[in-house]
Design brief:
With 296 residues, this protein is mostly helical. The protein is built from 9 helices and no strands. Helix 1 runs parallel beside helix 3 and helix 5 packs antiparallel against helix 9.
């Protein structure tokens, strides 16, 4: 008997058949999200070029980098989580939170970002695709979160929690003071000198709003919670580290593509920083998730 199987008779009184039904719907949602994410990547400028975004070439290059990460990591992780949920594995709902939160963040930007007057394109025709993936991701987040029982999650070692907490705080500090604050100061100047801002101001403000309003506060809250050993952080860290690893890989892909295409907004420092964050985030996600697959 392993500790990694979801109890068919949960302590909250739900019947086994209802428990299986919840798992079935969650698994199907994860399959839809995974294959939908792959479709968006393949239909975009990475491959099919059927989706043409209303953005500058620099922003399109960033989308290509993000599509590579979504196709290589996010979509497979979502499908893997669906298989684990279908089989009743404890790691299924936990793993589901990462791609779901990633989709909520990324597809809202793809749907709303861009300059629909300044640049030609047809991405608005795929609005329902982004909206559908956003709704599915939201439903997965809620369903997976309610299926997690903190009492059944394996305990992780103190050093691992502390390392993840410090990592979150370092990333939040870099995003705030190393990436976004210089851009805000330049945008507030009488005459901005930033090519990235001048080329895509709508994308600029959407990313700033979401990162400084959601990402940074979330990273700080979970980071402090892990360092202070807050009981709520034991559950939240699984969602946070998976999401951070996937998003870090996506941003690293964007930075690498920008560097490879000699984008004026690209810097070697940002490329190295984001690539390092991606590698560290994926490694820490492996450390946090590994106990979920151990036998008792």
């Amino acid at each position: 008997m392993t500790q990694t199987l979801i109890n068919e008779a949960p302590p909250n009184g739900k019947s086994p058949s209802r428990s299986r039904s919840r798992r079935t719907w969650l698994a199907l949602g994860l399959f839809v999200l995974g294959f939908g994410a792959a479709a968006v990547s393949l239909l975009g400028p990475l491959a099919g070029d059927a989706i043409r975004y209303h953005a500058s070439q620099g922003a399109v290059n960033q989308i290509i980098g993000g599509d590579v990460a979504a196709l290589a990591l996010m979509a497979p992780v979502s499908i893997l989580a669906g298989i684990l949920v279908w089989r009743g594995h404890l790691a299924g709902p936990v793993l589901a939170l990462g791609p779901a939160l990633y989709a909520l963040y990324m597809y809202s930007q793809l749907a709303l970002g861009g300059d629909f007057v300044r640049y030609p394109g047809n991405s608005e025709r795929f609005f329902t695709l982004y909206l559908g993936l956003f709704i599915v991701a939201g439903a997965i987040t809620i369903r997976a979160w309610t299926m997690l029982d903190p009492a059944r999650l394996p305990a992780t070692r103190r050093w691992a929690d502390s390392t993840v907490g410090i990592f979150f705080l370092v990333v939040a500090f870099f995003l705030t003071f190393g990436l976004h604050l210089p851009g805000l100061i330049d945008a507030w100047a009488p005459e901005s000198a930033s090519s990235e801002y001048l080329a895509d101001p709508a994308v600029f403000w959407v990313v700033k709003f979401m990162d400084l309003g959601l990402v940074v506060p979330g990273l700080v809250a979970v980071g402090v919670g892990l360092l202070r050993r807050g009981p709520w952080a034991d559950k939240v860290k699984y969602a946070a580290i998976a999401w951070a690893a996937l998003l870090g890989a996506s941003v690293a892909g964007m930075a690498i593509v920008m560097q490879a295409t000699a984008d004026p907004a690209a810097t070697a420092g940002n490329t190295i920083a984001f690539s390092s964050f991606a590698v560290i985030g994926l490694a820490l996600a492996g450390v946090v998730y590994r106990p979920l697959f151990r036998r008792r």
